[in-house]
Amino acid sequence: MKTRKKGVPKTKEERPLNRSFNSQLARDQGYSDLRNTDSDTDGELSWEEDGEYSYTVKRKPDALWSQRYNRLACLLAIAVFVIAFLVGIVIYQHVTKDDTDICTKPECVHSSSYITAQMNLSADPCQDFYQFICGNWENTVTIPDSRPKYNIFSVVSDQNKVYIRKILKSNSTVIKGQHSETVQKMKTYYKMCLDTSKINELGSEPLTQFIKMIGGWTVTDTGFDESKWKLEDVLAKINIYNFAPLFDVGITIDDKNSSQYVLSFTQPGLTLKTEEEYNTTYSSYKDLRKAMLDFGATLGQYLGGDYNETRQKMEDIYNFEKQLSEIFVPKEILRQPDLIYHKMTLKELQGIMGNWIDMSEYLQNFLGYKLSEDTDVIVYTPDYLTKLAPIMQKTLSNKQLLANYMVWSAVQYFMGFLPLKYSKAALILDKVESGVKELDPLTQRCVDKTNTVFGFATGAMYVEQHFSESSRSEVQDILDRVLKAFYDNMPEVDWMDKETREKAQAKLKYITPMIGYPDWILNVTELDKYYENVTISTDRFFDSYLSHRKVEVDRVLRKLNTVPDRSEWDMMPYAVNAYYTPQLNKIVFPAGILQRPFYDPEFPLSYSFGSIGAVMGHEMTHGFDDQGRHFDKYGNLENWWTNKSSRGFIQKSQCMIDQYSQFKYQGYNIKGETTIGENIADNGGVKSGYTAFSTWKPEDIKKFPGLNLTPEQLYFIGFGQIWCSYYTPAHARTSILTDVHSPAPIRPNGIAVNSPAFSKAFNCPKGSPMNPDHRCEIW
Length: 779
Fold this sequence. Notes:
The chain is an alpha+beta fold. Among the domains are: about 200-440, Neutral endopeptidase, domain 2; about 475-515 and about 595-779, Collagenase (Catalytic Domain), CATH 3.40.390.10. Helix content is about 50%, strand content about 5%. The chain is built from 30 helices and 14 strands. The protein has a 4-stranded mixed beta sheet with strand order 1-10-11-9, covered by helices on one side. Strands 5-6-8-7 form a 4-stranded mixed beta sheet. A hairpin with a 2-residue loop joins strand 3 and strand 4. Helix 26 (about 675-695) crosses helix 29 (about 745-755). The radius of gyration is 26 Å and the shape is globular. It starts with 18 loop residues before the first strand and ends in an 18-residue tail after the last helix. About 50% of the residues are buried. This is Endothelin-converting enzyme 1.
């Protein structure tokens, strides 16, 4: 999975830098960030408008409150039954004096209830492991109509946001006993988001002013003047606010010199999530095209333009984006860091770009200073930029089209900062592309927006109130054991020779782990300095958000030619996720993921190893997947493999590519080549976690009531249940095209079929679906 790389502007289609455990949570602040909100995730449980955190089952579009009440009552009955059943077992075991090894404490009963409530105990784990562990999950959780995907990550993330919302509602501005100006700004920003009266009063005026600032849009009366419009000026102005039409420019770590940040270029994002959706052979092509045009025309009408005229101009924008989509470098190529690394001078880049743009002038406008033509830059998609040149040569004289396209590339991101009708306009496209039916409630959207702007501040208050320091040391102990298991297993990897193995073990030892949160966020002085340039304009919510975007771009641009800080965090402390960065050879586990069900000291030890232990193994395995293996222990792109070991890795990887390509989800084949890195990490991570647990397993491991399961079985259930998930049909199709992970319901079964330990734990007959004759194993 991927998180944001160290670059600007933010786009949907980009080369991965960090490898994250759950890309749907990490990808560019989620699908809804594009047009509706600034959500940190793409799937959260919503609060009701009255602020209560409630559970319902999946709703029909026309669900009534009476139906919701009946379903809530049903869920409550199920929960009461499960707990009563477990209590009955405890009483029986006590009466029969068979309780010597059974934990009868309330927390043990609750843990057992949590695990069993999600399971379909009538299913055969050897036939379909996912159905066995998650078959009842959808009956136990809320699946809001506002989410294209919902899973365990979403549930835990939303609980974290419940805590954050309480923090935002409180009057305290204190961290560690000191007043923080940042916390004051943060709470003011949250209140401004809730003030819909003021937002409605301002109407479209904030967006109109922004459009004027970036050169005007011909669909509205916003000052477009063709005689004064210049591409190099407008492109720079748009980039300054973190948008990327035509191409993506960023500041990244030099893959071959991890001690330096450099300027980089790659292909941009598009309105639709992936280039395949512009292809006339795509199943939803006509619906997506219509939805995009309707969304744009509705927005233009709200801004004072004529609906039909705007729709015609949107059709021109769509056709232009379609041309761009046809020259995109395929995702399979972008997965190969050794093939896409191209260092060249700015002069050489200009030669690729052609004369449709003066790169020196453009970059001076963007950076604020002039770069020498001998300046080195990294270009990840030179083929795209080369093919862009003739398209731009033909289009350059059509300034109205270019202006309309470039403004559109920015304005679609602001719908959630305007009156409600704008967000609903964005739903025209989101309904078709993602399958969502409605927006999250206002309180939910405002928590997400506040997290986006003040993530380290909300994170500081979250960890101060909801994260135990003892968790750090306990989790570190588990991590050390998983690392040792991976290290000790390397001599058993028969396709790797001694020379490569020794270097791999050295790289593993050099991994830097970071757990919980960056310490500096609890220092008020440092926190206030970090956010000092974010301007909160009273009653101007849109403008305050705009300030944040510019400040973040400035923050990144200052990194150019500096030495990367290896202790820097790229994920907020409350995030329910984890990631690995190959250029820095580090793994990060935020506080947000270090809680039930991923980590809870009251859960069965084997279950915790299967969840958080496998997550840890997953992240460290990324250092040795199809991408991470190209980087040495210092994070430099270097071939440290012998030819024999490389051939062995490629052969073993092809086995897994072919295997996963045969798996189907909602009728669609998984893209084995695109998902290979995550599949390698899943399989390697579960194996390392299992080995770590097996070598550490205490003799006096306690038993839990009602769990007639061995510790080995609980280990695999611990991993599998974090992938209990729901996808809308539209999102299932899109995610297979865009996500570097296999769909969540596939992941437990993908592990099972490749694990002899799983088959042994569940006594699966040879030849059964989860114990096939042929397996794939890399690490």
